[in-house]
Every structure is written in C-alpha cells, then in structure tokens.
User: What shape does this take?
Amino acid sequence: MKNLLIIFFFLFIACSPLNKPEKTIEEDIVIENSEIRLVISRHGRALSLIHKPSGQECLHTDTNLPAFSFFQSRPYDNEVQLMFPAKPKTFNADTVYWRGDDLVVGFELESYLAVIEVNVNDDYIGFKLKDLEYEILDYGVKRRTEIDKFTLLQLPVQNRDNFGEWLNVSWDEQVAINLLATDPYAMIDAEERDGFRIFKAELHEEVKMKGVEVVLITTEKENLLNRIEKVENDFNLPKGVASRRSKEYKYSYYEIWDATPQNIDEHIAFAKKGGFKAIQIVWNSFVSSFGHYPWKAEYPNGMKDLQTVVRKVKDAGMIVGTHLWYNKVDKTDLFVSPVPDHRLSLRRNFTLALPLGKDSDIVTVEENPEGVTMEEGRRLLKIGDELIEYAGFTTERPYQFTGCMRGALNTEVSDYVQGYRLGLLDVDTWPKWVRLDQRTSIQDEIAEKIGKIYNDAGFDFIYFDGAEDVIPPYWFYTSLAQNKLYQNFTSPPVFSEGAIKSHFSWHILTRGNAFDTFRPEVIKEATRKYPLAQAKFVSKDFTSINFGWMKYVAPGESTIGMQPDMFEYVCSRGAAWDCPVSLIGELEIFKKHNRTSDNLEVIRRWEKARIENFFTDKQKEELKNSNQEHILLINEDGGFEMLPYTQILNVAEENKNVRAFIFQRNNKTCVVYWHISGEGSLELPVSSESVRLFEELGEEISLPKNEERISIPLGDRRYVQFDISKGEVIDLFSKAKIK
Assistant: This one.
C-alpha cells in the first residue's frame, strides 16, 4: 500500500504543468480577429466561438470539450502503462497559456508541452504545431514517449441548416464555420453529436506532425469562398475557388476513348450537335500502357499527333481535357514486366520459412496468409525480381502458398534463401493494374511523366480516375497523389474531377466526381439513387458533381438503347443542382442508332439553357423532384420552355418500340413521341379536326382530313396536339395501331 501511494504521488508530480508561471495562466485564452472571437479556458477547454458581426455563438457550450489532446495506441510512459490497460488512450489538455505569440499546452498524466503558433489575420486564424517539448523526470524508468496522433484543434460546433462533410463546413444563410487544412498532412473530420459536431484537426505520426497548420474560418456565408481563396493564395494551394468561379466550370464534356488524328473531326461534329463546349480524351486513345506511356500505333509521330488532336478541338471552339489513371501501372508496363519495380505497393509481407528453389511450386512462409485474395488476376507474390502466381494457401502451419506458377508476367525465376522477404503484390480490383507505393519516389516519377505530356499537349482539365487506389491512410495518400500531379501542371486545370476525394482534394477535384455508366433500362432509377442523392449532399460543400458518364447504347435484342427521355431525365436532374453531364462518344454507335439526332438535341438544349442560367430557382426546385420528369421545349419564338411530362405506358397495346410522353401546354393536351429505332406510322382513332402535328413547335405538318382516324409518321421525335382531355388522349394511344 505504501508503494502504491508513492507511485500516485510521483504521478501527481509528473502530471503537474511544466514551466507554467501562475500569473500567465489565471485568465482564459482569447484569440480574435475582426470576425472571430475564440475563447479557450486556461484548463484547455473550448468555451466560446463568437461571430462578431452577428454576435452569434457558434459552439455548443455545455460539452467541456478539450480543445487539444493527443493519442497513444496504448499508454507508453512506464508508470502510466502500469496504471491503465493496453488499449488506446487519449490524453487531454489540462493547461493552456501564452508564451509570447505562441500557445503552450500541457496535458494530463504526460510530461509533454505542445507549442502552437497562432496566426491571426482578418480572414482566418491559423494554428500550427511548432514543437513538442518533453521533460524527462529524474525518477522512475523514464524516456521520451511517442505520440501517435495529436489533436491540433477540436471545437464543438453547433449544427446549422447545412453541413459540408468534404469541406468540413457548417453553415446557414447567415454564418459559416470552417476548419480547413492548409496542406494534405492534417486529417480534418467532424464527429456528429446531438445538436453539434466536433470539428477536429488531427496530425498523425505516420504522416507528419510538426509544422502542420490548419485554419479556422468563421464568416458570413457569402464571404466563405473569399476567405478560402485567401487561404489558397497564402499557402500556395491548388486554386479550388477560382475553378468553381470560372465560366468553364459549368461545361459538360464529350468523352472519347479512341481519339486519333484521323477520327477527331468526326467526333468534334457529334460533340457540336450535343452542344458540348468541352471534349475529354482518355489516355487509352494515345498510349499503349500506363507507367512509361509508350505511344500507340495510331500516334506514329507521338506528341505531334496528340498536339494535332488537341489543336483541332480548340480550333472548333472547345476546351480539351484528359482522363487518366495516375497511381497505378499496367501489368504489361516496364514497371512490372519483365523486372518488377521495387516501389510497387505490397499489401502483405511474408518471410520465407524454408529456402525456395527454382523448381518449387510451394512457397513456405512464417506468417499466416489467411485473408489474402483469391480473386483471379490478383494472386501475385513479389520476391526479389520475380513474380509468383499462387493457386491456394494453407492457414495452419506449415503456412504455404500452393500451386505456384513461377516467373509470372515474364519475370525471371531465381533461388531464395530462408528468411528472404516477399510480399503480396497490390494488384488492383480491376486486375490489369498494379498499384504504386506513394511513400516512395515512384509517384513523383509518374507525376513528372504525366505533367510533361499534359503540358506539352495543351490540356485544359483532367479526370483523376482510380483515385481510391492508394495505400492507407487513405485520407492522406488520396489527396497527396493528386497534389503531386497538380504541382506538375504548368497551368492549373480549369476544373478537375476524380473517382474519390479526401478533405484536401476539395482544392483539386473542383467538380467532385462523375458516376459510372448505367444501362438504359435502369438509368433513371440509378440517377435517382446515386447522382441525384450525391448532388444534394455535395452541394453543401459549394461543389457540383458530374451526372454522367452516359454510355451511348443503340437498341438491340437485349436493350431498347438510350432514348431521348433518358437524356432528358439525366440532364434535367443535373440542371436542378447546376451540375454538368458527360457522354461517351462512340462513332459507330452514333451511326447505328436512328435516334442519335434526337438524343444529341436533347443534350444540347439542356446544356445551353443551364450554361445561360435560364432556369429560375423555382424551376430548379421543381427539377429536384426525382419522380416528376420534365421536357425542355423550344417554343414558337425560339425560346426555352420547361414543362412536366409523364410517360404513356400502354402505347399500341404496350408496344415497346414506341415511347410517348404527355404534357399540358396552352390549355391543350400534347404528346411527344418517337420510334426507338425504326420508322413507320401510328394510327389513332380520332378525327383530324381535333389534332395538330408538329415537327418542332411552330413547324406544323399537315394532316389529311378524316373524321374517324388519323395516321401520323412514326420515327424521329415529333409533337402532336389535341383539343381533348389528357385521359382521352391516353386512351387513344392505348388503342393506336402501328403500321
């Protein structure tokens, strides 16, 4: 009992603040600029955050939340670990005081002092971890312990009408509170609580701690982007705000996977019919593998041919971007075969338990391989300069990879001694690729190669595909890999998209992401479930997404193909949130599909109307109703007119070759209709006196007089107007005959 009391006495001494004169810590800490007044208690608790112009309190003030803390995976101090279990432990701030212009923070139970540089200006308040001081006491078994994570700032921010998870901002029409990283090294997050969120900036030992800075912005909502732009300029960040404010930000694009100097003119012609102001060229068009980027046979003159393609697009009045994979390389590339690069990513590491001869098809290892992938194309081990494809493995000793094919992907078979290290090659889930290890120089090397091609070709924007294919921690390497590319571009992209994003990526992926293609039969349902839901979500981050990629599909035995109403739906839902779309251009499919002109015309109308800000706020709210479809008409005066419309499902006794949609206009009942792929005529049991037919509104087609029935052409999209009720028109179309 006596020894225990002695231990507790020493712990009390060890936990006492170091170098903290009483006169400096009697008052609360106040940090303020012209907009913000942040108050932290002398014991390290976040007390108040006032937006000074409005007088609003922005914190949930009843939490007693420590503003600073650090985390260890288990207690590391010798005496502290004797007291607590071997599980993660957080040590909260218990003392805060000024030392000149720096904040000094002490912590419970540990002999650390964090020195935090405070940067105050009129746009934001910055917090930088300047140093971590440690006093080794002269009693007990003492050493400087590690810190696994350091919380540079955390605040209990009251909930407001909107929360942008990506940007980490809580806002309403009056005030916005934003905790923002100034580089990729801080993990920014917000933990949801009842009525508030804990805004948190964490620094991880495995990434970087000292010298990392975050900023706190509290301002009017209308000023938020101005404040962020100031941060971007002050810290030389990618220009996310300027991109979002550019005129090009609204542009949809036409994407090409097979662009060549020979076919680019034809692609441009189709892109113009769709009203596109941007063309995106996928790197598969001009390189035969990713990594060393050798030119395809279609580009015999290399960069000169690519420059020709880009110049033709720009001469046509469009901007031109590119779509590539940047954090992984082809299995066929020189980075993998015949000699795999030492900087490729390994998912698991193993040690040879027995020597491995050239003729052996069993690899015996010390570690249990349980859980390694059995997916086809991904079962590859890397040992030295050899790749080995395994067929199975054991999960009891002796641990073995069995049924091994040596020298996979044309690598050289060798002998290996006991104790030799090997690893599970990080083959992508799309198993044509092998991922890179971003901790090494290989991502920099790839970024330089890509940057040179991007700059020399004259590209204007970029899609960072496969952005998820990095090593953990993903919050860091996702944006780090993107930023390495960005820093190699001579001119910043006018906008960028990507497959996945982390907090710092907000400055880089200024249009969020595009969604993968959906089949014609499910495209409306999938648009409701994914792009429409995400657009609402990401709009709170002051960002749009891309509602495409829309794959162009011609009707066939197994599909009705892409039809005008499908493009109408996707484009209209995008317009609801000021979001672009994208179309994958395939020349042969365009030519094969008889409704290509109608499909491209639908895209052209919505694109032009959205870019020209035709839609009112009221109309945008109408378009957010995912269950009500809309049509964009060009009226008799040549102007746009948006109306709700509904599909007639039982045309000609549910004939699937005809699509018809009904709407009310000028007290008349109207139907837009077409054949999905062919030509013919549609007979309706109605007098011609009550019917008018239009090629386009204002372009009437004469009908023969008939008291009992009319025959109207069936093929391209046309409009028919009736003087009878909606129910009667639906009944007519159900009784229609196709000739």
User: Anything to note?
Assistant: The mean pLDDT is 94. Residues 442-457 form the longest helix (16 residues). The CA atoms of residues 116 and 130 lie 5 Å apart.
